[in-house]
Amino acid sequence: MLNVNPDTVCRLIELAQAYNVREPVSIPDEGNGAADDWSQHMLADHKDNTSYDEFETIIKDLEPDQQHEVVALLWLGRGDYALDEWDSIVQQAKEQWSPETAQYLMDHPLLADYLREGLELHGYGCDEGL
Fold first, then answer.
1. What's the gap between Cα 85 and its chain centre?
2. How far are the Cα atoms of 22, 33, 47, 101, 115 from residue 96, in angstroms, in the given order?
3. CA separation for the pair 91, 48 (Å, rounded)
4. What is residue 1's predicted lDDT score, i.e. its pLDDT?
5. Looking at CB atoms within 10 Å, which of 45, 71, 77, 108 has the fewest?
6. What is the extent of the structural domain holding 90?
7. pTM of the predicted protein model
8. Residue-wise pLDDT tens for the chain (130 aa)?
9. Residue 97: inside a domain, yes or no?
10. C-alpha angle with apex 40: 39 to 41, nearest 5 degrees?
11. DSSP annotation string for the chain
12. Cβ neighbours of 85 (radius 10 Å)
């Protein structure tokens, strides 16, 4: 049973998707050499994209046990654990907790997919219209 509201997790999923869907930067084909190749892998950062700020606010507003569950949902959805290990997953998330939970979560480019999968394993889903 989840202590974190599935609707809250669905909102986090939506924000993670909005944050991670950024346009590729257009780089001219002509470069100064191999050292310039790294720049072709960057994504444009939109200063008006407030998805991360809202995501961080929601995470910080959650109770610590709810933050642990969101991290555990990530790990569950990623396939690191099975649902029958839920209590131990949450305990591990508690032991590894840091004040940088929002950043830890957003550092996973497939966060939205993992959270969605974790919710589905618990029997919850998000409406597509969110």
1. 21
2. 30, 42, 31, 10, 18
3. 37
4. 80
5. 45
6. 6-121
7. 0.79
8. 899 999 999 999 999 999 887 644 444 555 555 555 444 444 445 455 689 999 999 999 999 999 999 999 999 999 999 999 999 999 999 999 999 999 999 999 999 999 999 999 999 999 754 3
9. yes
10. 90
11. --SS-HHHHHHHHHHHHHHH--PBPP--S--SSGGGGGGGG-B---TT--HHHHHHHHHHHS-HHHHHHHHHHHHHHHTSS-GGGHHHHHHHHHHT--TTHHHHHHT-TTHHHHHHHHHHHTT----TT-
12. 15
Residue 129 counted as domain residue? no
Nearest partner of 1 among 73, 104, 58, judged by Cα: 73
11 vs 14: CA distance, rounded Å: 5
As given in the structure block, the two tokens for residue 91 are 């305990």
Total count of domains within the chain: 1
- Within-domain flag for 48: yes
User: Residue holding tokens 């444009």?
Assistant: 44
Residue 126 in domain:
no
